[in-house]
Amino acid sequence: MSDDQNQTPGTPGGTDRTGAVARGAACAPWIRTRLRTAPGAAAALAGLVLLTSFLAAAFPRSVEAYETRGLRHDIVSAAPARSVLEVTSPLPDPELGPEMQDAAVRDAGLAEVDAALRKMLPEPVRPDLPRSSYGVHTTDPAAGTERWLDRPNGLDPKLTFATPSALDKHSRLRSGQWPKVRGDVSVDSREVEAAVTTETASALKIKVGSTVSVPTRTGEPLTVRVTGIITALRPAENYWSVEPLFKAPVLTPTPPQGGAEPLYFWTAALLLPPDAAPALLATLNKPEVYWRIAPDASRLTGLDVAGLRSAVASLESGPELLNVRETVGPTATLTTSLDDILLVHTQMRSAISPVVTVAGVGIGAVAAVVLLMTGALIGGRRHSELALMRSRGGSLRGIGRRLFTETAVTVLPAAALGLLLAVLTVGQARLWPAVTAAAVTAALVCVALPLRTTLQHIRPQLHGARDDMMNARPSQRRTIAELTLLVLAIGAVAALRRRGTGAGGGTDLLVSSAPVLVGLIAALVLVRLYPLPLRLASRPVARLRGAIGFLSLARAGRASSSGTMPLLALLIALTTAAFGGSVLAGIGDARDDAALTAVGADARITGPDGPLPLPDGLAGQVRKVGGVDDVAAVQIEFGVVLPVAPGDGGQKRTAALLGVDPRSYARLARATGLESFPADRLKATGSAAPVPEGTVPSQDRVLPVIASPSVAERLGKRAHSIDALAGNFKVKVVGVQPLTSAVPNTDFMIVNSASLTARQTTALFVTGSQPDAEELRAAARDAGEDLVVRLRSEEREAYVDSPMQEGAGQIYAAAIAAGAGYALLAVLLSLLQTAPERTTLLARLRTMGLTTRQGRRLLAFEAMPQALLAALGGLAVGWATITLLAPGVNLASLAMSGAAGSVPNTVSLRADLWSLVLPALGVVVLAASVAGVQAWWASRRGSITELRAGDSR
Q: What is the dihedral angle through the alpha carbons of 662, 665, 670, 676, rounded to the nearest 10 degrees?
């Protein structure tokens, strides 16, 4: 018996009858042999797994990282008075002796309580020690009666007194000396020292050595002597910003009385040394003990939000407040607006997360499909080899184990390297979600490839009829599966349109997978419809003399019926790229629209305090500025009372009256993209003709007006009297405009300015390609007035991204790039899967006289039907997906959160042409390029080299 017969079937090298390993020269390690046989395929698979595992691991880390940065940014950027935890308590228990009361408010006593408060704070609330402070301050200001104090309107200034801790560490001495405690200050002391900031000293005319008398309960005043003038080292920190009077005085208006103008008086603070606090206990100004604990946001993460909100709520009115009162006193309270900051952060995160999940699901789906396509390509290339092993008696388990082992050797290091790169690239996030994502990627490749390949060899396969798209007949099981997916897609789209992406404040994976399901259904439908255009096109082409067209269509029709996978990958990738591009385009368009709404044109010039008359000749000077194309002069008057309409209960309504030059205002409307302005309806003729100077116009003359919808509905078709500063006349609605540039979000009436009695220009609206900001402001300054110049470009730049918005935008930019890249990779894999067959075909046809040029045309024409199907299908499916999902996707949180000015509550998804066209065009170009390169390479090798091994089948 030969050596081959002694081998156990399916075991290379084999064993003898006794089980001893046969040591032959041909017994080489299996994995090493396979990797040496096909190093290119192994390297390509490793590269694809590396890229996919990197994206899979980076996605959860990126989401967690931008949520962490967003939380820290929201806390740090908030006003210190809102983020600080302030514990306050009235005077010490009056039943205590005077000495114990004095000790309780001195620096040592307050520092002891401060240390206890910091230790008892629940996690994850952590104090920021350098920015925290404590002390005693008066809550009821005392009147400064000294005659040398500054009095803007003759009213006495109001003075508060405080003993903030560590004053010398947060300020610098400018003149005099630091305030000190002379001996032991008690409640009976009647003289203490203080310091004031340079701003307070300048405003109130305080000098070193000045004294202020403060009334006390005993009748003997407390003298506060100013010994030093200081400057705040970091004025924006909590120490100075929680109570702004510490830093600078404030002009406070008196309460309004009737229609009289308010009077103003100074409110300021004098800062005493910490151990001088007992002297304030004798005053009549309601002294209070405080501890201001600034939260430390440097160690917070996005996962701490829920715990932080719970801890803050407990500190304000829960069990932790009882612990605070045990430490401070039974009447202590803790106040903060940190819970409001966290609420806003949670709302933004809840609005952004579902939109980001849509991108993650889309890229994950197309990556999984491309990985499966790669496995199918490798399995197809090794079909003959594995069939031979199976025919020699190899078991499915043994073949599958060997495939799993050789795949794992390539895939696991690549996945680990992708995970490492993701961890090094994206920080501030947990490790296990990234490890899970990379492990799932590796497991998909390691399991799918052996499983799919071995299942094809359960039974011996004989060559039979062609398995192509033209002859394939879908089975009942496939039809049922497709109908099930169709129902899921319809349900996901309906849920997304009805509930939106943020349904219930969470993320619904079915809703987030709506674009993927739509692409999947479209792929299945296109695969079923694909044979129809080929059959229709093949009939007229068959009558032509040339063979290239007929052969290319015949070859395209013989594509495998399993071609759903490449088409599915392409449609999901193109849909994801289109969706991501539309999200970014929607954000940009929303910010452009908001900037245009806030300004009304490319630039706007108004008076310093609302609609005041502008200097004559300013419009002419502005027209000379570089980049200015046109200037529209507008007279704006707010608060014009409208006539009472029947049925509204006598409720008074007002609107803005706009006096415009109809032609220039029509040009402004066109330049800003608004609805066409009907300038011809505002002709200054008849009763609306300009009134000659020196004559009294009739109040019965009727002016045509173009009104907003609500004003037009109120005025109806009759003429109504209007009393305005611009004149008294009647108006009649001759047109309706939903929006106007001059007064956004306000009811309005537009009249011809030539028909007004008191004509004046209160605003200039400038349009142009790029008006020069410096020249515009110089022209405004030359007019001799303190005019306000606002530019649309500067308003647009004000809409900056918060960390969460920036992170979500970066994820969508990556989704566009990844979607386009995977789409091109799917095309390449699809073409490589049939590359050997096409190369053999070219070699055979060249022996029959096919030229190199004809070979290139043949391969290009063969690749075009599927490429065009994918490209056109991707365009249609991308556009349809955006149209279907737009009502349920609100981009306001991504575009406008945190922006100042007039912002919309809803920002809809808009189809972006470039995101639709460019990836689809790239698919067609790549398919044609690969076909051309393959034809060129086949022509270089020659027919003999390709055919000498015989038929590959």
A: -40
Calculate mean pLDDT across residues 926-934: 77
Residue 32 has which token pair?
């090493």
Structure-block tokens of residue 429: 């996030």
**Which tens digits make up the pLDDT trace of 832-870?**
776 777 777 777 777 777 777 777 777 777 777 777 887
Contact by Cβ (8 Å): 870, 572: no
Compute the average pLDDT of residues 16-26: 41
Strands 727-736 and 720-724: antiparallel
Measure CA of the first residue to CA of the last residue in the chain; give whole Å.
32
- Residue 798 DSSP SS3: coil
Question: Is the distance from CB of 296 to CB of 199 less than 8 angstroms?
Answer: no
Please provide residue 748's backbone torsions phi and psi, each rounded to the nearest 5 degrees: -150, 160
For the segment 307-365, what is each residue's pLDDT rounded down to a tens digit?
999 999 999 988 999 999 988 888 899 999 999 999 988 888 887 888 888 888 888 88
The span from the CA of 680 to the CA of 662, in Å, is: 7
- Between CA 907 and CA 21 the distance in angstroms is 72
Q: What is the mean pLDDT of residues 236-241?
A: 88
Identify the CA nearest to 831 among candidates 926, 699, 717: 926
pTM for the full predicted model: 0.79
Radius of gyration of the chain (CA): 40
Q: Is the bond preceding 566 in cis, omega lying within 30 degrees of 0?
A: no
CA-nearest of 138, 58, 74 to 435 is: 58
In the three-class reduction of DSSP (H, G, I as helix; E, B as strand; rest coil), residue 222 is classed as strand
- What distance in Å separates the CA atoms of residue 774 and residue 625, rounded to the nearest whole number? 9
Please give the Cα distance from 921 to 875 (Å, whole number): 10
The pLDDT assigned to 1 comes to 38
